[in-house]
Specification:
Chain lengths: ~750, ~150
């Protein structure tokens, strides 16, 4: 989560061309090779008959430039936006650009040459833009220098445009000079400066995605599609309760079923580099949950056999847990301000005193549930263990992390592990955990030699996930006789992702992602403010889930502000604007979304507009939802307007797509989703009970750019999820007078009279 | 048992249990992986293929039930992505992660074959059990209308 602003020195040290360019034969391109990306995106889209100028790009003899992508393509468009960044500086004809995944093995062997290969935190563009610009600019100047040397002129006289170099009467193509360019080294001070946004010609426009053609004809290879000669298939059933252990099983009962090759158990007494300890939180990144596995000649045979495998489980420490028990544990803290579990987050002025002397006092409690990621592609990974080498295929949000997990599981050197990155059928944070990767490595290691594809059924994927944690909020606010907020108290009790996964990231005992937007990062000025936080962790493994803390905090905060606005008799927009400092970056998005949506807080009953804003991943988003609710409580979402300040855009069309996408993520969680927990296990196992938004329920989403430019570079994969979490409930309140204080909305009666 | 299936005009004889879902025969036995596994219970649409020209969920269709019928998968919809749905999909950059898109393209192509100019209501009804978790719905709707124009102009 730290900035990876690469220094020029670091760039020079790590990204020199491998072996000064390589020539690998010549053959007639196939249809796949002429596409911008290989169907197997870890493989080259061209014959690679050309030269590598640096680790990020090669130039073929025909001038085709292949740019390497170090982030995972899971729908957000990095397979197009990241090559655009390199191409902007390289001055290459975009039609000549191809793209392929960067190689995590090379990254590991070569001092992290690809910088940031973990994909998350809406960081694809904003965390890699600078070094990708540098890669393109440095390659361009090397090409110029190569031409200058050949022509006996100064580099400053050479221009580069659309893959052509010119100086006076001399002209030549990038391809002609690529070999020489790859061998040129510059002193650090001679590395070129990168462009500033006012110099961009391509960045900030809308460019057709390079991966679209292969996604309309079934050609794109996802992890589940990997086929390796001699491959076996594995199906798995885990302890229903996370942290549970195998009590009994009868492997012999299924060994004779069609196609069965082997029956295994992972966990205590079974195979796998197990670190399970009932005293520890289960499912840590380093551990394997207890499970049984059938390996067979086809997936259907493997799944059929594992479904028939007689097995009993000991639920372990999580047994008996239910939604009610989780909430009771949290509320015991939430409703006791003196509870020892609390840690101070913010304490400014005298909140208690100000509230005590306020004209109006409001108290409110909000809750959000555990959520599953519901990636369209069920979890899977293919691994082959051979002498001196391990290969792993899959969709990894963190390919070097997956590589490390495989090496750790099998006890081999990382340099001997080769990951082959596929397209990802959604990620949303789930595909950075690598639970299935470790299992696939353990199974392939046990089988030995033959490749094995492990595929979790939808039921296993949904019930053995890593979940967006629950959260509970208590708010107390005091308004003076003019309706001005004079005192604010907030207690939050939630399940900490940091504590579970990376406790070293906790600061003063606090989990900063759990407190996003609620602490000093809140945009509103409050004279007397007190915020406390307490963990109430459970046995359920928590995980990043699209927009993380902003997938729940705005629901509590911006709903309570709405309550305060209504209690003050104020327009909800004006109430917020009045609490923003004069130089607040929230002012413009708020005003733009209000104007574009035709903001109106005085619609007739049954209709309503709701507003909210939040900042996450460097971007500020303000959202207005407009709804109609029938007297019987039938909800129709008429429109959603979203104003976006991510500073700048790279591929503007992809920003719009991410806004629409984030609204769907928010709507499914708002309207339908909660994981039901019984005896510590997940009840929802498939889309028949874990409902997702349908096309018929999709409102019109209008995206409005509110770009402030300057130094601001915000992410766009996640942040526009947050504001709708309150804008929609606020609209429902405006229409009906029903205040939604727990999610999902389907649990509430919206009827009015 | 040996079953003979006609997929994209080619006859394939496979040795599978008769109750094997068509989805897994297409993917694992025949090796066409464009048809996707999403739920296994006909609730997401990712596995949609055409059987005798009509959209069918291959995850809940037994392989034996498809014997003697003409099965079309995403790989066989057109030789060169020239079906109006595919053309419109590319034109409007519909896919994001792309995983569910084979199912949407096949479902939309089937809709277009029975309704040359589908209304929004037709679209809502036809896709009651299709899911796209990336939320490409707005562009899907727009692209279906665009595909109808393309088909009409052809």
């Amino acid at each position: 989560m730290t900035h990876h602003e690469i220094s020029r020195r670091k760039f020079i040290a790590t990204s020199a061309a491998a072996g000064g360019g390589m020539v690998i034969g010549f053959s007639i391109p196939t249809a796949a090779q002429s596409a911008a990306i290989n169907n197997n995106p870890w493989e080259s889209p061209t014959d690679k008959d050309g030269e590598e100028i640096n680790a990020w790009l090669t130039v073929d003899r025909d001038g085709t430039v292949t740019i390497r992508v170090g982030q995972a393509e899971m729908g957000q468009g990095v397979f197009t936006s990241l090559p655009m960044i390199v191409a902007e500086e390289l001055q290459v004809d975009w039609k000549m650009v191809r793209a392929e995944y960067a190689d995590a093995n090379r990254h590991v062997r070569n001092d992290n040459v690809y910088q940031r290969m973990s994909t998350g935190g809406s960081g694809g563009v904003r965390r890699s833009r600078v070094y990708l610009q540098q890669a393109g600019a440095s390659a361009r100047e090397r090409l110029k220098e190569a031409a200058a040397q050949a022509w006996g002129v100064a580099r400053s006289t050479v221009t580069a445009k659309d893959s052509v170099l010119s100086s006076g009467n001399n002209t030549g193509t990038y391809a002609e000079f690529a070999a020489r360019a790859g061998a040129i080294s510059f002193a650090e001070e001679d590395e070129p400066a990168i462009k500033t946004p006012d110099q961009f010609t391509m960045l900030g426009t809308s460019v057709a995605r390079l991966d679209t053609p292969m996604k309309v004809n079934g050609a794109a290879t996802f992890g589940i599609d990997v086929r390796v000669p001699g491959m076996l298939y594995a199906a798995i059933v885990h302890s229903p309760t996370p942290g549970g252990v195998l009590k009994s099983w009868d492997a012999d009962a299924v060994r004779g079923l069609p196609g069965v090759v082997d029956v295994l158990r992972l966990g205590p007494g079974g195979i796998g580099n197990l670190t399970y300890n009932p005293d520890e939180v289960p499912n840590r990144v380093t551990g394997i949950t207890s499970s049984v596995v059938v390996v067979a000649d086809t997936y259907y045979h493997a799944q059929s056999a594992v479904d028939q495998l007689p097995v009993t489980w000991d639920a372990g420490p999580g047994g008996g847990t239910t939604n009610a028990s989780i909430q009771a544990d949290a509320f015991e803290i939430l409703h006791n301000p003196a509870h020892e579990a609390y840690l101070p987050v913010q304490d400014e002025g005298d909140a208690a005193g100000a509230i005590a002397s306020a004209a109006t006092v409001l108290e409110s409690t909000y809750t959000t549930p555990y959520l599953e990621h519901a990636c369209m592609e069920p979890m899977n990974c293919t691994v082959q263990v051979t002498d001196g080498r391990v290969d792993a295929w899959g969709g990894f949000q963190n390919a070097p992390g997956a590589l490390g997990i495989v090496a750790d599981e099998l006890g081999v050197e990382q340099e001997t592990v080769f990951t082959h990155q596929t397209f990802l059928g959604d990620g949303f944070g789930l595909r950075s955990r690598n639970h299935e990767v470790r299992e696939a490595a353990a199974i392939a290691g046990a089988i030995g030699g033959r490749p094995v594809k492990l595929l979790w059924s939808r039921e296993e994927t949904m019930s053995q996930g890593k979940y967006r944690p629950f959260s509970t909020y208590y708010f107390k606010g005091g308004l003076d006789s003019n309706g001005k907020l004079v005192g604010y108290e907030n207690r939050i009790v939630s399940h900490s992702i940091f504590h579970h996964q990376i406790p070293q990231f906790m600061r003063d005992g606090l989990d900063s992602v759990a407190l996003e937007g609620m602490d000093a990062r809140m945009p509103y000025t409050m004279p007397n403010k007190k915020v406390n936080w307490a963990m109430s962790n459970t046995h359920i493994p928590p995980q990043w889930w699209r927009s993380v803390g902003m997938s729940q905090n705005p629901f509590g905060l911006e709903s309570f502000l709405d309550e305060l606005a209504h209690a003050a008799g104020a327009d909800p927009l004006q109430f917020r604007l009045d609490m923003l400092p004069e130089d607040s970056e929230f002012l413009a998005p708020y005003k733009i979304v209000a104007e574009k949506s035709g903001w109106n807080s005085n619609l007739p009953k049954g209709q309503g507009m709701g507003i909210a804003a939040s900042e996450g991943f460097g971007s500020i988003i303000a959202t207005v939802a407009k709804v109609t609710v029938s007297r019987r409580g039938q909800l129709t979402i008429d429109s959603i307007d979203v104003a976006v300040d991510c500073g700048h855009t790279i591929n503007t069309d992809s920003v719009e797509a991410q806004v629409q996408s984030s609204q769907v993520t928010a709507l499914s969680s708002l309207l339908f989703n909660e994981m039901t927990i019984e005896d510590g296990a997940m009840v929802e196992k498939n889309f028949d009970t874990y409902h997702q938004l349908k096309i018929s329920q999709m409102p019109q989403v209008n995206t409005h750019m509110a770009l402030s430019g300057g130094e601001k570079w915000g992410g766009m994969g996640e942040p526009s999820t947050g504001p709708l979490l309150a804008a929609l409930p606020n609209a429902i309140f405006a229409a009906t007078g029903v205040r939604i204080k727990s999610l999902p909305i389907r649990n509430h009666d919206l009827s009015w009279s | 048992m040996a079953l003979t299936l006609t997929v994209n005009g080619t006859s394939h004889t496979v040795d599978v249990e008769s109750e094997t879902p068509l989805l897994w025969v297409i993917r694992d036995n025949i090796g066409l992986t464009g048809t996707k596994y999403g739920c296994g219970i006909a609730k997401c649409g990712a596995c949609t293929v055409h059987i005798d020209g009509r959209a069918a969920r291959s995850c809940t269709t037994k392989a034996s039930a498809a014997v003697g019928k003409s099965i079309t998968t995403i790989e066989g919809l057109s030789a060169d992505s020239s079906h109006p749905i595919q053309v419109a999909w590319v034109e409007q950059d519909v896919p994001q992660c792309g995983y569910c898109q084979s199912g949407w393209v096949m479902s939309a192509a089937a809709l277009l074959s029975k309704r040359a100019n589908p209304s929004d209501f037709d679209i809502d009804s036809e896709f009651a059990d299709n899911i796209c978790r990336c939320g490409t719905y707005q562009r899907i709707r727009s692209a279906i209308h665009r595909a109808a124009e393309i088909a009409a102009a052809a």
